[in-house]
User: Which sequence fits this backbone?
């Protein structure tokens, strides 16, 4: 039966190897890592982390050459896998944040786990899924990319085999993640049924919101959005986030809260801008509620946290709400402004949040504690760490002139340009929450700058070289994005092929 | 319309699966309920594929089958890990972290 | 009745015949044989020893590894079958693609082998 369905002539698909080079480098690199791990003596396992870092940097190279050579859209496999400016920017983001995570892990894993080869293999596999997500333009490839990035992440969350908190984190993440992706798949099957195609652009043409099948369409759209709302930990699908962030190893927490979340937003943007542009009456109210609730609940819960990782977890939930904001007005407002706001926010948030977690790792090497109270006196014995942490916290709070300020500015601009009552209300809710969020960031700053060290121990913190490199990269990025708002031609990143009625 | 029969069966399977995920306390039972949902999706896709006379749905279903196997592999090994550490796979006992 | 269903009629009659035959044989023996139950005879028989513990025993964890490996490799065959039905049409391109796919699968097998997952300890 299938053979009758397949078109009778098979033409060898055109494969653009230059465009696929980042994926090829990663794929070959992952195979290399597995082999290397199998045949390497235990005493030389440190090589694995170095090689993993080099593979990631090697995969950035073709992304750069593709960006330099031209802005033409490279489309493959019948338009199901597309390399355009949008995907190139996000590929670079995923690969570089993956590199920072490798830098953060290399000290941590040497001390704690004998499974270094598996750790980096899974990490790279997950990053490869994200890189694929940036190019996926078809329900099937979106689904495969999502599972590619999620399944290794479940295992990484449960990495500390003997630690029952880590087990709990992995199990919760796994069950909720798999359930969400199953619901999302049901939505996708309905969308396919209504439109007869799995290509996002075809779905975009068929889903108009005025068809006679409108009930099924709404169900499909809502189910698919729910699936990704879990991935980006939007309230009320956020319950896994704080537990997983607390239980997982800290580099993995940073990875999940930045890269995995960014991949979820990439998928959401693809759906909103390519698959549902005509169904704004369906997705806009839904995303509006999600955004408003996510910002508010995330902030209120962050206020009462005593553990720094849980505080950062709830703060990242609330930051996710800010990224949802432009998507909630993508139809009524200017679509380009919305997409630009989302991507810019993702980039700046990645730099800032990775940096914050790097500081948490550096400090916990001395204090062995996750309590906010243990940050007392940090300025006295580690002024450098206190200064960069202040930079990251100020950026998260949106205080000018750091990166987070520009990101929030873009999100508010996109919302205000929609010029509807709902959009203004959302902007007011977000503005109030920005002030509230400053409270818990400033609490931590006061702890670092003004309080004495809780146990009077003021010996300096020894920060390993890799962690210093991670701090420098993220710190410079956070500063640069804020000080140079016009930096790197933000206009180019809206080059999402096939969107905006082109 | 003959597609309706498949869709209704799919919807029933989906609902049973969702009920199982919410109501069951045993991790393995929850995994089985999730498999039910995935199979309802496969049923939908194959029915729609016949309806539209194109192979997209068939291809999608193949990928779902393969990915579901990988998911179950990871899930069962995680169940095993938790059983080794706690001697129990009841999900409501997994609540060390709160707040 | 469609031609398709008519072909299955043979299967149906075969099943009916099988059920009848089995029922007949068991029924006759139940009628003919002597029946004197005692407490000793009704006890579950387990190699001559009284049964210990309950019937829900746990199986060895090492069966699990083999089951898992089997499931993974078994399911990956799902991608090989459609390719195999159209082998000639896909030509060299298809052959290379499937070669890469099988290579990655083999890498997984080599990993399992090197880590000792295939050894029965």
Assistant:
């Amino acid at each position: 039966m299938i053979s009758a369905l397949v078109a009778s002539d098979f033409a060898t698909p055109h494969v653009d190897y230059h465009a696929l080079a980042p994926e090829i480098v990663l794929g070959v690199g992952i195979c290399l890592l597995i082999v290397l791990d199998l045949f390497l003596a235990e005493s030389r396992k440190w090589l694995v982390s170095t090689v993993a870092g080099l593979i990631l940097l090697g995969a950035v190279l073709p992304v750069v050459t593709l960006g330099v050579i031209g802005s033409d859209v490279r489309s493959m496999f019948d338009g199901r896998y597309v390399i355009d400016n949008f995907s190139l920017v996000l590929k670079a983001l995923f690969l570089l944040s993956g590199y920072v995570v490798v830098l953060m892990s290399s000290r941590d894993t040497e001390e704690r786990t004998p499974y270094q080869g598996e750790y980096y293999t899974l990490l790279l596999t997950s990053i490869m899924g994200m890189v694929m997500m940036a190019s996926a333009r078809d329900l099937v490839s979106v689904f495969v990319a999502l599972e590619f990035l999620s399944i290794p992440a479940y295992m990484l969350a449960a990495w500390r085999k003997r630690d029952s908190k880590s087990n709990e984190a992995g199990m919760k993440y796994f069950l909720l993640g798999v359930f969400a992706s199953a619901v999302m798949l049901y939505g996708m099957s309905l969308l396919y049924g209504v439109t007869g195609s799995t290509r996002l652009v075809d779905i975009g043409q068929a889903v108009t919101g005025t068809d006679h099948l409108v009930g099924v369409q709404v169900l499909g759209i809502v189910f698919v959005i729910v699936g990704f709302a879990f991935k980006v930990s939007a309230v009320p699908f956020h319950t896994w986030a704080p537990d997983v962030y607390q239980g997982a190893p800290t580099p993995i927490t940073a990875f999940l809260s930045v890269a995995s979340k960014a991949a979820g937003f990439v998928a959401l943007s693809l759906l909103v801008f390519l698959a549902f542009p005509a169904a704004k009456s369906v997705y806009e109210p839904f995303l509006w509620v999600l955004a408003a609730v996510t910002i508010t609940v995330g902030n209120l819960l962050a206020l009462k946290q005593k553990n720094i990782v849980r505080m950062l977890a709830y703060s990242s939930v609330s930051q996710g709400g800010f990224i949802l904001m432009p998507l909630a007005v993508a139809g009524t407002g200017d679509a380009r402004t919305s997409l630009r706001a989302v991507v810019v926010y993702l980039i700046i948030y990645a730099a800032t949040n990775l940096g914050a977690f790097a500081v948490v790792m550096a400090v916990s090497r001395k204090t062995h504690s996750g309590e906010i109270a243990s940050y007392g006196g940090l300025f006295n014995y580690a002024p450098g760490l206190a200064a960069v942490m202040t930079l990251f916290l100020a950026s998260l709070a949106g205080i000018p002139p750091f990166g987070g300020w520009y990101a929030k500015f873009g999100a508010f601009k996109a919302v205000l340009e929609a010029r509807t009552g709902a959009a203004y209300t959302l902007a007011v809710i977000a503005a109030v929450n920005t002030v509230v969020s400053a409270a818990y960031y400033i609490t931590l700053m006061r702890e670092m700058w003004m309080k004495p060290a809780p146990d009077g121990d003021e010996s300096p913190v020894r920060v390993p070289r890799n962690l210093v490199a991670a701090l420098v990269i993220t710190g410079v990025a956070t500063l640069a994005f804020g000080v140079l708002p016009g930096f790197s031609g933000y206009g180019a990143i809206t080059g999402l092929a096939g969107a905006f009625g082109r | 319309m003959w597609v309706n029969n498949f869709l209704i069966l799919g919807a029933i399977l989906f609902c049973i699966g969702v009920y199982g995920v919410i109501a069951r306390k045993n991790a393995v039972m929850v995994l089985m309920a999730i498999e039910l949902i995935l199979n309802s999706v496969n049923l939908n896709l194959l029915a729609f594929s016949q309806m539209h006379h194109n192979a997209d749905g068939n291809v999608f279903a193949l990928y779902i089958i393969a990915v579901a196997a990988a998911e179950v592999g990871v899930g069962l090994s995680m169940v095993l890990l938790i059983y080794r550490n706690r001697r129990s796979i009841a999900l409501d006992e997994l609540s060390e972290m709160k707040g | 009745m469609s031609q398709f269903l008519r072909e299955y009629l043979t299967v149906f009659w075969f099943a009916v015949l099988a059920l009848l035959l089995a029922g007949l044989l068991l029924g006759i023996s139940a009628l003919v044989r002597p029946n004197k139950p005692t407490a000793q005879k009704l006890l579950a028989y387990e190699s001559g020893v009284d049964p210990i513990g309950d019937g829900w025993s746990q199986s060895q964890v090492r069966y699990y590894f083999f089951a898992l490996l089997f499931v993974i490799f078994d399911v990956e065959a799902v991608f090989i079958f459609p390719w195999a039905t159209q082998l000639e049409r896909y030509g060299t391109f298809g052959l290379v693609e499937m070669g890469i796919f099988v290579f990655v699968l083999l890498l997984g097998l080599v990993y399992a082998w090197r880590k000792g997952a295939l050894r029965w300890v």
Chain B touches chain A through 48 residues (CB under 8 Å). The helical segments of chain B are 2-23, 27-52, 56-86.
